[in-house]
Amino acid sequence: MRKSTSIHWLKILFMPMLSLLLFGGIISPLIAQEREFLEGKYAVTRSDNQVFIFSFSKDGTVIVTEKNSEDKDFKEKQKYELIGDKLTIMPIWPPSVIDDFNDVTMTKAGEGLFTFSKDGLDYEVQEHSNWPAIMHTSAVLIALLIFNYLCRWSKWFVWATCVILPLYLTIYVWPITTVGTAVDTWFHVAKVWSALAGSVFFTLVRFTKLNNYKWAKFVVAAILAINIVEAVLRDFELGTGFGGIYHFLNGTAGILSIITLSGWLTIKADSSKWKDMVWPDMTLLWIIAYDVWNWSYICNCIPEHAVMGLIVLLSCTIPAFYKVGTWLQARAYTLSAYMMYIMSGSKWISHPLNNVLLPDDPTFIIILAMCSLGLNVYNAYVHFGMMIRRKAWGFGQPVLTLAEQEAIVATNKTFPHFIKLA
Question: Which UniProt keywords apply (predicted)?
Answer without folding.
Answer: Membrane, Transmembrane, Transmembrane helix
